[in-house]
Predict the 3D structure of the following.
Amino acid sequence: MVAEQRNSTRRRAIPWVVLALWIGVLALASPFASKLGDVQHDRVTDYLPASADSTQVAKTQEQLPGGQSTELVLVYHRDGGLTAADRTTAAQQLAKIGTLHPLAATPHGVPSADGTTLMYPVTSNWPGTDEKKRTTLVDDIRQVAQEKGGLEVQVGGPGALATDAGKVFDSLGGPLLYTTVAVVALLLILIYRSPVLWLVPLVVAGAGDFLSTGIAYGLNQAFGTTISGQSTGIMTILAFGAGTDYALLLVSRYREELRRVERPYDAMRAALRGCGPAVLASSGTVAAGLLCLLAADLNSSRGMGPLGTVGVLSALVAMLTLLPALLVLLGRRVFWPLVPAHGSTPKARRSLFTAMGSSAGRRPLLVLTGGAVLLGALALGVLNLPGSLKQDETFVDRPDSVTAMRTLAEAYPERSAQPIDVVTPAARADATLTTIRGTRGVADARAGRSGHGWTEISVTAVGAPQSAAETRTIEDLRHTLKGSYVGGPSAQQIDLRDTNARDRLVVVPIVLASVLLILVVLLRSLVAPLMLVAAVIAVWGAALGIGGLVFGPLFGFQGTDPGLGLLSFVFLVALGVDYGIFLMHRMREESIGGAEPVAAALTALRTTGGVIASAGLVLAATFAVLTNMGLVQLVELGFVISVGVLLDTFLVRTYLVTSASVLLGRKVWWPGRLSRAPEAVRPQRQPEPV
């Protein structure tokens, strides 16, 4: 009697202790979480390869007198030709701009040959590396440079492009968070059909996301981890998306246990024992896959790995500690109006996944072959993917800076309106300048600032920005100028393309090896892990292929982000295997319990299919939020991952993996003990349904 009272007291106390600990942890994390915005930057160097020439140029320019330059181009254009009044307006506006902010030099106008356009290169060192000051500078100049009497006035150049991109990345903070929360809340309401239950996982996911922001700030302070708008946005999506997935699995198992066990505390213990290993393994797989991005040379990709991992693991800890505590404290009434009474049985009904499993079980070879052919056909769409994105194609809606770029390209076909930046040792500056002027494709070159042993040289190419001619000029300069660095906006695009190609060759094998190793340890098999990895690779190819079919014809995108292949691969492999673990882990439990291979496969699909489908919908919807952002690279990434998750959830897991498991029978567990005859396997207690 005394022991029972002690156990009862402990059962009542533990959830309150966990809740108190979480309140303390969130209170401790609050000062750090509030500082994350102070260390978040979307500078050029945050998205460039660590070892590239263009990165070295950008870093060296920051050390020159005046710090980093903000280079702008004011474009004055009239279709019928500029008038004297137009030129007067331009001069007045430039004079007013000079009174507002310090400029590095007096701007001089460069007229176009046809007389329709006048461009003024404007450079200011006042903002330095301060992104807020740069935004203020660009906004103030745009406020002054207003159109007048039919005269078109546009503000372009690298500084304006960076400002417009920065505003989009800023929107990845509040708007992305609010949209993600709204989407997850709506889906949870539809899934649970309860006025209260949906709120519990949402609050817990929010706590996990808040904790992740504090940890991310700590990583930056301790290890200098790159914090960008893109990486923090992905961290938020993973905290809510993956966290909600884990919550769906746990709540589903807890509901079943409540029908079998009288006390909520004991039911939760049974639920954690039943689905905890699968949740731990799946989160570990996602974290391992993301951490492989540390091998990337691209700063933005390398910074995304740790932050994505922090988001997933914070969500995991929250869902395995805070969520159980809250559910136990709220008791059975949290499921109202569909309260699972002790001793009751759920209404028997034929589920969609039972029907799917039956079709896969009756004709497994036909289902597997048909699905594989479908995925292969979709993957052919990759051949229709547009080429690499150019700078003027990176925005969904054309901002002023892109309009200026296109106006300049049409008005000045004989020269580039975008400089190539070269930094060279100051002792060799004159010789370097002479070499540059003698290089094929160079229209002009002028020496600029000097400091810390380096001299800056601004080069004007004959070819248009990011044209084949300008690319040849950059390559010739890099080949000729030994000991100097060649950078600038166009050179950065070349380095991004080359580095992403290198990162794919390095990171993809590491991701596959790490994920395969975790699956082998978890499933104690070689065949099942290889099957799951092959399935997620097929999903990745099909999702990219669908992107190729819609990016150009439907979305009107003229290019593909060079990093799309690598990032979509990492996320789809890690997240796709996540769902495979839920299914195969349950299949293994059924096999250990003595079920025949076909029965084990179909039972696993029937009992986990609904949870996997719900989780897939939530995760796909959270990544789909990115398609509402203003940068093409984010829209493409969000689209491919969302489509891939849906393919994985409703085609690969339900049909292909199930039918392949039915065909392979016990061989799916080779060389583990489950692959041997039934008498070689010790029967264990039949696990409760998930």
User: Anything to note?
Assistant: The longest strand covers residues 442-451.
